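Journal club prep — side note

Before the paper discussion, L.F. wants everyone to see what a predicted structure for a comparable chain looks like in token form. Sequence:
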Amino acid sequence: MTTLVRALLGAMIIGLPLAVPAGAQPQPARLNINRAPAVPRTTPKPAAVPVKDKLNAWTVGLAGGLLEGAPIRFATEIARVADDGDNLHVLPIVTRGPSENVEALLYLKGVDVAIINADALEQFKSLVPDIEQRVTYILNLFPSELHIFAGPDINSLGDLKGKKVNFNTPGTAAAYSGPLMFDRLKLDVEKTFIPHQVAAEKMKTGEIAALVFVTSKPVDLFARGKFDAGYKFLPVPFEGLEEFYLPSTLSSADYPQLVAPDKPIDTVAVPTMLAAFNWPRPSDRYKRVERLTQHLFDRIDQLKQPGFHPKWKEVNLSASVPGLKRFPAAQEWLDGANRTATVNAERTINPGTARELVRAAAPNDRAEQERLFRAFMEWQRRPEARRSGSGQ
């Protein structure tokens, strides 16, 4: 191989400038017109997310209720605990009431979840026959107790027949559930639907015989208000109301000025739930409600602390709602929690087994056995031991 050929091959392999041997004729440089000039490589910056898209990406609309009702307070407290900045923005919405929240959940843009009463689905069954397939529940929240507050001349439900009874303004739980309960109890009264504050003044003159509230106890008006002698809550029988309602009582702990310590008042309650539209699983809306469910269930113990509505202490994540399916993400969370509890129970080592293990670890040293045993039992009581045992 000639010297010139070797030089050419070497230059091709290592990319060095070609050195022309002595006596050889230099060749003119050739321009490769097919090769683009080298451009320094840079990592492209991700496009900035528009503010509009960022605000809407993980926002969940939660239909609560009227400002004076318990549902909007529950909605606000859910937002306080579940909210997670850009990762989840829970937006409580003041609405016309839990009964009309079913309509909001079905048709109102931007509403993903809503607080509704169990009996509120009934009015939609004729219009939406498959409503049980379109509405699911995340959580059985709390019961809304029926309060029938009467003046001195009324001593029983029978005394109300033919008289004016106020059911608050249209859209409230009292305006929807109250008449339903009275119809099932066969109480024929003259129904009025004006603000309770106005109706309370009319009670003083005898124009209105009673006020009907359907809300979670205790109601501030009755817990803190001052009333003349003779004003009272009327007892309500459970018979005839079993289909949608629950038995309950009003006690002196709820209303010390109106209920004697040894004479609780029988009444009924409407189950109230956090409901979700049955979004298809791959959809963006499903993912938002799924994240809300996970955040809420993970942090439910925060809601049972002082400062939140006392009814949170009664909330049971596993409680079901008759006639409705649980939102799939809620069921999956519960299934996972049950599996974790089972694993933790299986992996918890009882003291007898622990003694055997430490004897094997330090067979001839009783002091070391005792130290190991105490250290292990202390570790097993700690939360991190539970988590490591469950594989989380």
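L.F.'s comment for the group: The beta strands are 59-63, 89-93, 113-117, 135-150, 164-166, 190-192, 210-215, 232-233, 246-250, 265-277. Keep this in mind when we get to the figures.
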